[in-house]
Amino acid sequence: YNANGGTGAPSNQTKYYGTAIKLSSTKPTRTGYTFSKWTTASNGGGTAYAPGANYTANASVTLYAQWTINKYTVTYNANGGTGAPASQTTNYNTTILLVILFLLDHQTAI
Questions:
Q1: Quick one: pLDDT at residue 104?
Q2: CA-based angle 12:17:23, to the nearest 5?
Q3: Higher per-residue pLDDT: 83 or 99
Q4: Is the pLDDT reported for residue 105 higher than 60?
Q5: Residue 23 neighbours by CB distance under 10 Å
Q6: In this structure, what DSSP letter does residue 2 have?
Q7: Nearest Cα residue to 19 out of 55, 46, 43, 47
Q8: In terms of Cα–Cα distance, which of 68, 69, 72 is closest to 89?
Q9: Residue 42 CA from chain centroid, whole number
Q10: Are 17 and 24 within 8 A, CB to CB?
């Protein structure tokens, strides 16, 4: 197993010819990402396996963790008022520009 940018990959397992093994159900972790699956290619190509799936091929293999970036949403609340900006969604570790509106006649920030 290769955590592919994360940490906590399971230990190696031994498979014997002609038998199936159950893959580890351990999932690695990576800040800002969610583990999605194991694949036989580091770039996400090849054959995909879920944690705990059966592996039946009679060949040695390295399984690479695949990751989905976490998304975050900023929602504005006018707190009883009107005119709140639309919500903004962004990926982990990406900067967004927060919207600040001012009512000049009352000099109140929303």
A1: 53
A2: 35
A3: 83
A4: no
A5: 19
A6: B
A7: 55
A8: 72
A9: 15
A10: no
